[in-house]
Amino acid sequence: MEYRYLGRTGLKVSELCLGAMTFGNESDEKMSFAIMDRFLEAGGNFIDTADVYTQGVSEEITGRWLKNHRREIVLATKFRFPMGDGPNDAGTSRYHIMQAVEDSLSRLQTDAIDLYQVHCWDSGTPLEETLRALDDLVRQGKVRYLGASNYAAWQLMKALGISERLGLARFDCLQPQYNLIERAIEYEIVPLCQSEGVGIIPWSPLAGGFLTGKYRRDHRPKGGRLSKDITAPGENFWYRRATERNWATLDVVRGVADAHGITCAQVALAWTQAQPGVTASIIGARNLEQLNDNLAAVDVRLSDDDLAQLNEVSAPDDIYPYRFIRDLGTR
What we know:
331 residues; 10 strands; 12 helices; TIM Barrel; eight-stranded parallel beta sheet; two-stranded antiparallel ribbon
């Protein structure tokens, strides 16, 4: 396992991050412990969870395991979504942030969260309020670094500008959806993150399991997230995945996998890790078999020809103003 700096910071994290969304849901505590043990054994030091994952259970399981491994792990969690029925049990207000961080610290059984992330944009709260509250947590030592997830480029840039203007701790990483069939962040977000030194830690690098190759045009299995018409979050709707462009992409993934004697998942993860600006892809697993398959991706190095094939078949639409700017060049 290699280690990369998180954005412009001096913090080093493993090139794969273990996502804990399955803990307490698809994986019971015993299996969750086994997954974290194996990840640590493989050299992983970066674990990402969220308060909303199984309504706090994921953090609780992670916290019980962390008691014996705290100094070995860069711990990330997120807040934003409802954790109760009250009007202030969600969002990014100072009120909710101060309660959410204390609850997460308690569930995780730690004195500090290494990376505290806003799980999604909140249009109801001024950014200044959110960023000042988060800066206070950094100054208090309860949080070490800040990040955001599911932000548009203008939202992230606005936040960075406010932090610079007011002298506040800033977002040092972004957690967006990014994979071979969801490449829209390449229009604005990837260039922005590269320009401003913000690390990218993609979620769903396997597109909810679509890029593992277990789904086929003529066969929709009953098991797995994409077997349902509706899932949460809604990015994994079957109709959004089962398009001709995506099937064509998966065909090329299978071809590259067969040529190298590896799995489709390993090809997809290796592609994501090879993209500019990416620090660590977030992998999730229900069991050790899935985890070991994902971990093997760190040894995969795709050739220039492999990458060219994958990039061509999965290329996002060539739209204005990006094609105009590119075609104009330096003229």
